[in-house]
Amino acid sequence: MSAESVRVVLVEYYVTEHGIRIFGIVPEAEKPEILTVGLTRAELRASVKDFYALLRGERFRMADYLAGEALRALVRPIEEWAAPGDVVYLVPHDALHRLPLHAVPLDGAPLADRNPVVLTPSASVLRYCWSQRKATRSSALVVAAPPADPPMTFALTQATAVSRLFAEPEVLVGARASRAGLLERLRAGNGSPDVLHFTAHGVFEPVDPMRSGIELADGRLTAEDVLGLSLAADLVVLGSCESGLSDRRPGDELIGLTRALLYAGAASTLVSLWRVDELSTGLLLTRFYQELRAGNSKAESLRRAQTWLRGLTHADVLRHAQDVRSTLADGSPLETALLLEEAQLLARAGDVGTALRIYDELCAARGLRDGLRAAAREQAGLVRFARRVFERRSGEERAFPDPYHWAPFVLTGDWC
């Protein structure tokens, strides 16, 4: 399907002291439709604080939070303005920048089930991003698994899976995944890759957002570093924690990695709103690239990947973890970390006996790192404490139904 044949709807929010104005801009109308939702600025900001408190604690309640009437009122007009399958551009304002509005349900299913959803800081930025669109996506630069403590269990696997989907991959891993090397590569005049993908730990600095960035082998690649680049990439993917968080300044100007990447020339970014789970993130992003290489747009690829991830069972994910571990050297720290992940999955699938046997063997193993041994003891204690709950579970239950796993990533910029 060509970009010209896709209907695009723009939904812009404006938060005031007395309510939230919603502007719906559709191709056929001469002027926008305007609605008001009675959620004040103070109420919205308090609600967002509640949401991030759930992320730090009771994540299982996220779906109930997103299904609340106040948030559903913010997305309900989209049912009238956009038909299923239309691309919906959201222009958040104020604290709405930090909420996953694409995960708010309409008629019992997330908005992202109905429509591909993309974000843009403003309509003017959107036009700029569209002008940066590349005709092809054949080359990729993958920066992954810099030395870290704790190590990223699935980072190398994700890097390999992503690189195999491109005709011209370039991979920087381990010590080669360095800030100095990357900056030299991107400033060398060799041309920007079509896709730039990071799998590394991310950090958001709320006090100094321009210091937010990606932790690489020799230091942090910051938003300030990115502003100094000329980055003609069609897509930049930050498979890391909190990579999409930004600080708001007067005029609702966003300061952070996303805006820095768009300013540097990237047509679009795929970034996260909170601290992500490495396993579900790796599965989501690998599927995203598979959909992209199959010819789908970036927005549709993300929508399909999110839907696919929500449908995976514990048995599906366990098979994936076992396949990854089979490629690693026995007894290596990475293999042991993956074995811990496998034990967790076994417990969630109801096989408590096998999970506890793995934990006990790890706790008794000689030469095991103190951090891994402590993690095995802690996880074993939790499984024993809730053994009856785990034993009632089945491998056929869905592994990642909650928004914490499938909803953190948002596409900003060009949708195509």
TrEMBL record:
InterPro entries: CHAT_dom (IPR024983). Pfam families: CHAT. It comes from the Bacteria. The lineage of its organism: Bacteria, Bacillati, Actinomycetota, Actinomycetes, Kitasatosporales. This is CHAT domain-containing protein. Residues 71-414 form the CHAT domain.
